[in-house]
């Protein structure tokens, strides 16, 4: 597993290693050696809390501990959703929840000739959820196309009533990503404008119905995080040449 490509708890005082969170099961936190995450502190109950990785973050449930469990210093009680960069506390022990980080190793910068100009395109792109259940989730873009919709077979299935079964399609041509609406009921917008084979640039906001995503590019300088046009070298003008 590559570094930081998983959800994890980071000790805020950096005294211990990161705690990876496994998808598909509720992890028990406590002082008991049989817990999935063992915290050896007298302030921690034997069975203190559970953490379950779900879409959008981690569901934290206190198990009736003596000193409580917290998300951003608010007691979780029977359950609370912690999102990326939120603080999760077990009594006085504090951790920060970190989301997976897209790998910079996937980045490549490709020069593309288009007529008399050359463009630079970055291919290591991803979508980041900005609302609803997919907030703070990272969705790397790969291959030649990437579908969004309520259909479970979509590359990004989004279970929201404003999203159509097949809502939008992103396509990659020569390293450049574009997005088109797929005749959805509530439309697809890029920065508030209808999407139809619309080129995407770093920081563009994509609306699929009421669900918001942001298109991002990693591993390149700010000047290269969107398509850049480079003027071709000027050719000498023969008519202006000085005769020998």
UniProtKB/TrEMBL annotation:
<dbReference type="InterPro" id="IPR000253">
    <property type="entry name" value="FHA_dom"/>
</dbReference>
<feature type="domain" description="FHA">
    <location>
        <begin position="146"/>
        <end position="195"/>
    </location>
</feature>
<feature type="domain" description="FHA">
    <location>
        <begin position="27"/>
        <end position="76"/>
    </location>
</feature>
<dbReference type="Pfam" id="PF00498">
    <property type="entry name" value="FHA"/>
</dbReference>
<protein>
    <recommendedName>
        <fullName>FHA domain-containing protein</fullName>
    </recommendedName>
</protein>
<dbReference type="InterPro" id="IPR050923">
    <property type="entry name" value="Cell_Proc_Reg/RNA_Proc"/>
</dbReference>
<dbReference type="InterPro" id="IPR008984">
    <property type="entry name" value="SMAD_FHA_dom_sf"/>
</dbReference>
